[in-house]
Amino acid sequence: MNENIRKIKCGERTISYVLTRKKVKNVNLRIKPDGLVYISASNRVPIKFIEGFIREKSDFIFTNLDKFAARVPQPVLPEKEKIFCDGDILNLWGTVCKINIINSDTKNEKVFLNEKNIVVYSSSPERTGMLLRNFFNSEAEKIFSVMNRKTYLMFNAKGYDVSLAEIKIREMTSRWGSCHYTENKIVMNSRLVLYPEICAAYVFVHEYAHFIVPDHSERFYSVVSDIMPDYKICKRMLKY
């Protein structure tokens, strides 16, 4: 399975969509609150057919994107002290998930993802927030570790001489990531776990590019574009 972000002009507006190639019989369309359209189709379906399908659905797509833009608040990480109820909503990797709370003893407490449900085995309402927060932190650590190595390999494949960075994760309010190039260290915002994974991938590319160019000059964005040509879509989603 592979995916990439593409754009298509529909009238006076542009639709950005994530195309995923996988073994499916039909062209499938999903619209998420992150402002992107998700299309899945097999490798045999040509781009021309897919974009014709999107144009046919453009009125429906724009209507729903506008609804999301008007009503969806910025996602937030679960608070440790908050009392969560069964059926509450949280965002995880850009997907709206329902919380399913199941009473448990302390020894059997756990949290896991079951499709679009975050299942929490909790011994008390007071512990549910902490369990959720720990789960979100572990999700960030797991995915960021994979993305870090993948980004390092992409830069080296393009001929950029960078080393595998040390990763630190913490919640930040004013930036999505920061690069300490003299220490070969990148700090990632834990709140990226609330957004589509491709947004976190962009932040990794952005920060690794600072190992090549420490400022935000035209040359810097040339490096970013060389690794991720569609980076501007993610930048808009994060308001980076």
Task: Present the secondary structure layout.
Layout (H helix, E strand, L loop, with lengths): L1 E9 L2 E9 L6 E4 L5 E5 L5 H10 L1 H14 L17 E4 L2 E9 L6 E5 L2 E6 L2 H33 L8 E5 L6 E4 L4 E5 L7 H13 L8 H10 L3 H8 L2
Parallel strand pairs: 2-4, 6-8, 9-11
Antiparallel strand pairs: 1-2, 3-4, 5-6, 7-8, 10-11
Helix pairs in contact: 3-4
Summarize the structure.
With 240 residues, the chain is α/β, with parallel strands linked by helices. 37% of the residues lie in helices and 27% in strands.
Structure overview:
It contains 6 helices and 11 strands. It is α/β, with parallel strands linked by helices. It folds into 3 domains: 2-71, no CATH class; 89-136, no CATH class; 138-238, 2-Layer Sandwich (Zincin-like). The strands form 3 sheets. It has a 4-stranded mixed sheet with strand order 1-2-4-3, with helices on one face. The protein has a 4-stranded mixed sheet with strand order 5-6-8-7, covered by helices on one side. Strand 10 and strand 11 form a beta hairpin. Helix 3 packs across helix 4. The longest helix has 33 residues, at 125-157. The radius of gyration is 20 Å and the shape is globular. The two termini are 28 Å apart. The model has no long low-confidence stretch (mean pLDDT 91).
Keywords:
240 residues; alpha/beta; Zincin-like; 3 domains; 4-stranded mixed beta sheet; 6 helices; 11 strands; 37% helix; 27% strand
User: From the structure provided, what is the oligomeric state, counting identical versus distinct chains?
Assistant: single chain
The CATH architecture category of the largest domain equals 2-Layer Sandwich
Q: Quick one: how many beta strands? A: 11
The secondary-structure class comes to: alpha/beta
Can you identify the CATH superfamily of the largest domain?
A: Metalloproteases ("zincins"), catalytic domain
What is the fold named in CATH at topology level of the largest domain?
A: Zincin-like
